[in-house]
Amino acid sequence: MDNRKFLPFLVIAAVGLFVIVGLSSSLFYTLGPAERAVVFYKFGNGLDKENVIGPGFHVKAPWNNVYVFDVSENKVEEGMDVLDKSGLSVSVDVSVRFTPMPSKIGYIQETFQQDYINRLVIPEVRSSVRQVMGRYTAEEIYSTKRSEVEGAIKNETAAILSADGNNVIMKAFLIRAINLPAQIKQAIENKLQQEQEALAYQFRLDKELSEAERKRIAAEGEAAANKIVNSSLTPELLKMRGIEATIELSKSPNSKVVVIGGGKEGLPLILNNN
Predict the structure, then answer these.
(1) What is the mean pLDDT of the chain?
(2) What would the pLDDT profile of 62-89 be if each residue is shown by its tens digit?
(3) How far apart are CA 66 and CA 53, in angstroms?
(4) Which of 43, 52, 69, 215 is the most buried (most CB within 10 A)?
(5) Under DSSP, is residue 163 helix (H, G, I), strand (E, B) or coil?
(6) The domain boundary residue, chosen from 10, 35, 70
(7) Domain range holding 255?
(8) What is the C-alpha separation between 166 and 156, in angstroms, rounded?
């Protein structure tokens, strides 16, 4: 059997396989679980913003471009110098967590391309940090209103990032460190210590006042009870109680001497035989 007649087909198959292997990176692509993509059709309608491609294995024309986005939670850490309400320079380190809206990555690509973190997220975070911290003093940022400052920055940044055309979801914002001039920091810490000592003193004072009030009320109650008892102890009642006690004692098996009318107010005297 002459195999030479199959030679052209083998050559064509080999060339085709070589072309496919060479173009495989342009023909096939795979998206991971946290990845989404949009396609730019060079000879079609351009960027297809509405059709977001999900995870898995996909095929495309070699002349089309695929833009892949990581839609998992991202984190950026930034350090910056800001001015407080009084114009004092404060150095802060902040951390922000965010994610692009998976269904809107086409619009993000159209506006910011894949560099949306540097073009959108970081500038807006820095702007919000400066604006919010400019409404507080260094002491408030450093100690008394730190959580309030964090919340205000998060809310204002989230509103901007999620606005139409931006399409980024703000997850969290955290002030990691606040660095003040050593003299200012020491003054704030001394003031906080004095405030804590004053609160502790006031607590002890309030406790002592409460205890004094409790004792006063108890004494008044005891005095009122004694007054009631004393007012009820008439001579007639005492005589009657004495007679009742004499009768009860007379029933005792122990020997004793009872002198009737020998006591004060005519009450019986009870003498032990010893």
Answers:
(1) 79
(2) 889 999 999 999 999 999 998 888 888 8
(3) 10
(4) 69
(5) coil
(6) 70
(7) 235-272
(8) 14
pLDDT at 215: 79
Question: What's the pLDDT score for residue 155?
Answer: 94
Please say whether the beta carbons of 161 and 124 come within 8 A. Answer: yes
Same domain for 143 and 169, yes or no, is yes
Q: Taking a C-beta distance cutoff of 8 angstroms, is the pair 48, 68 a contact?
A: no
Note the maximum CA span of the chain.
158
The SS3 of residue 112 is helix
Which CATH number goes with the domain that contains 118? 3.30.479.30
pLDDT given at position 106: 94
The tokens 């110098």 sit on which residue?
Answer: 81
Percent of all residues in the chain with a pLDDT value above 70, rounded to a whole number: 66
Buried b (16+ CB within 10 A) or exposed e, 41-59: eeeeeebeeeebbeeeeee
Q: How far apart are CA 173 and CA 147, in angstroms?
A: 10
Please state the rounded mean pLDDT for residues 163-178: 92
φ/ψ region of 255 (left if φ > 0, alpha if ψ in -120 to 50, else beta) reads beta
Q: Is residue 148 included in any domain, yes or no? A: yes
For 40-58, how does the pLDDT look when each residue is reduced to its tens digit (9 = 90+)? 998 888 999 999 999 999 9
**Is residue 94 within 8 Å of 82, Cβ to Cβ?**
no
Q: How many domains does one find in the chain?
A: 4
Residues 160 and 115 in one domain: yes
Name the residue with higher pLDDT: 62 or 261: 62
Q: What is the DSSP letter of 38?
A: E
Residue 118's Cα: distance from chain center in Å? Answer: 28
| Domain presence at residue 87 | yes
Q: Is residue 11 part of a domain?
A: no
CA distances from 101 to 34, 48, 85, 159, 177 (A): 12, 16, 35, 14, 29
